[in-house]
Amino acid sequence: MKRTRKIAVIGSSGGGTATLGHTDARALLHSIDEELRLLDATIWHAYYVSLDNGKGLDGANECVDNATVYTVQNDIHEEATDQEETRFHCRAFYRGVLKDVNKFCRLDNTLSQSILAGEIDGLICISCHVGIFSSVLLAAASKEIRVTGSGGTSLSQVANLYHIRLIGNAGGSVATTTFTRAVSYTSAFAAYWKLAYEPWKRCRQSGSSCTSVLNSCLPMFWGVCLLKQCLLFLHERFFENSSQCGSFIEASILVLEQMALPFSCCVTMATSHASGPAPVSSLNMAALIASTSCSRSILSGLLAGRLVSFATERLLYTLIFWNIPATMANLLISGGVGALIALLMLPVSPVLGIITASIRWTLAVSVGFPNLQVRIGAGCALGCFCCYGSKVGWYHSVILPLILIEMELGDASVLGAVDELTLVLVSAGICAANVLYSTLHSRQDHLSTADIDLCRRGFFLNIACGDFVEACYPLMENRLAVNVSGYLASGLSTAWLVASSSQTPKSLAYLPLPIAIGVSETNWVQMAVAACIAFGISFFGTLIDNWSWHSHKRD
């Protein structure tokens, strides 16, 4: 069985606060240990001082500010099983004012004795105070233990005062993250011990598909659409003649239209494709920069996010293995990758924007034919298609992505209005009819108590939230007349909306019914009538079916 190399960690959260993750000592030590295990090594002993409230030690008052000492004292033996070797014990060992914490670390000689006894194979110094940890550093110097770490001031003092040889890319800690530091330390020991360190080969899950990422951005689309509607309302009613306030609102609307949604898609795609414990903060910063070239195009935002996630991890490992300091590595993967992807997306974004604009134009034209009969037929077909597609599993793969493409500029959508009519209100009508029937007939007949509870909950969520349209599906599948009334309601309500609207009808589901109608702007009356048609046909169709079943059963 391979011998597990033992690493000691000493240090603190640092003088400044220019690192990401400096306040979470447990996460940092756990991340370091996780990377070391790829080398059959582990943190055997640690003293890590973390100042409370995320403050930097440079401006700390020893007699006032509180700090905590986190320790790792591994009790794993050489003959331990693989399952036991995966255990990691980090705990807050001592807490008090900084002066007492420093005194505790200075007087405790457990680690220095372990080093002198030959139990420690390497030392990681993280912004350590060379005076407080002098006994440890003296022991490391006498045993010629190799040292790596971060924190420019402390490392330079370690090398100068104790004549300790630093290995790897030991350097500053500005702009570093928990993950980049862990990889940097581990890479240093791997190079010194001449071991293979290939963290990119760790077990990783495949990233989400484009449609999944796009669908997960629905809250952002939803919020941008509502905010844009509110800003337009305020501008038209109160600030149209106010040059200063009006210009400010117009600028806000322009930002929403051009940048908000591409940025959201870019960041979400980048983080969803992050493999392993890649630094999410670095991905977010790189994605933000890359999204600046994705104006008015959510597809380019998705593509830029995918490129960011692809490039960030690979560049990170390359830089660290070239012994580039962690600070510079993080600057390059956050700022450099983002800038490069932004440049690459400059010629691509307009093309992808044309594609999504063409999709919006096609949907608008499909319900905007000059001929009334054609518009009615197209609206009826579109309503029935959405009703059927939702039942067979096309909603999340086809309908919702098309809705979000329509909402690319922060506007409501044609399919959003159809969604509200054919799914939400049809479900509400069916559920309401069943609830009313059960109320008028205490005897349950063909509806169980569970069915009624489902319908009651479904009706409430349909009207109040525009959600849980699936509540009616079991009832539609079991009763032919209910199924027919659902399709009839879907087709006729959409046909009415398309035929009666003077402009392209648009709305949005996942809203309370009154707001979904209000979002339709100039077509709100037509949308309200269409909502009554969708609800009424499905309601009375289901109610008649229940009465006919009751009459047939009685006969």
UniProtKB/TrEMBL annotation:
Keywords: Membrane, Transmembrane, Transmembrane helix. The lineage of its organism: Eukaryota, Sar, Stramenopiles, Ochrophyta, Bacillariophyta. The chain crosses the membrane at residues 315-333, 339-362, 374-394, 414-437, 480-499, 524-544. It comes from Phaeodactylum tricornutum (strain CCAP 1055/1). This is Uncharacterized protein. It comes from the Eukaryota.
